[in-house]
Amino acid sequence: MSAYPLVVDRRFELSERWCNWNGVDVIFIAARAAIEAGPFDPPLCEVVFDEEYDPFTVDTLEEAREHLRNNRVRSMDIILSHIDEDEARVTLHYSGDRLQLNGYGSDWPRARAAYDAAQAELAGHFGITTFKLPKLPSDTVAETRKRLVIEDLEAALENVDSGSEDR
């Protein structure tokens, strides 16, 4: 038997793409929402322009907006994360008219909250309702088995208690 505890790896990883994207300002709104919802405190921000041609990098969303106003860019990658990037990270990749949102992290609640906030901003801007998976029904087979085992244990316990009075 091992002395090490069992570690279950629960990573969050989602991705969503939109074609014919034309709302550059909304990308920055979504990025700010992800930072707040994470929360990414302190937030790490890296924005890379034209990575595949002549990369130019800035460290804030404000610098990125200014660069976009003054320059023609082919692509933009916004990478947002917590101090430990593997815990929670959101990326927004914009190229031409396509946008891809990615969420990743070992800190499931933080990574998921950041991703969901960004996704809600992006989808809401265009009147798209994001889907929510329905809550799974209780496993009736497992619940029935559990009930039957409990009833058997209670009956066995009553038999043990009644037998001890005869001694």
Question: Can you describe what's shown?
Answer:
The protein is an alpha+beta fold and 167 residues long. The protein has a domain at 12-125. It is built from four helices and six strands, in the order E-H-E-E-H-E-E-E-H-H. It has a six-stranded antiparallel β-sheet with strand order 1-6-5-4-2-3, covered by helices on one side. A hairpin with a 6-residue loop joins strand 2 and strand 3 (56-58). Helix 1 runs antiparallel to helix 3 (108-125). The two termini are 41 Å apart.
Features:
167 residues, alpha+beta, 41% helix, elongated, disordered N terminus
How do the helices and strands line up, and which of them pair or pack?
Blueprint (H helix, E strand, L loop, with lengths): L11 E7 L5 H14 L6 E6 L6 E3 L2 H10 L4 E7 L7 E7 L2 E8 L2 H18 L14 H26 L2
Helix pairs in contact: 1-3
Order of helices and strands: EHEEHEEEHH
What's the number of helices?
A: 4
Q: What is the typical, i.e. mean, pLDDT?
A: 83
Strand content: 15-25%
CA-atom Rg in angstroms: 25 Å
Helix content: 40-55%
Low-confidence stretches: 1-8
Shape: elongated
Briefly say what this structure is.
This protein is an alpha+beta fold and 167 residues long. It is 41% helix and 23% strand.
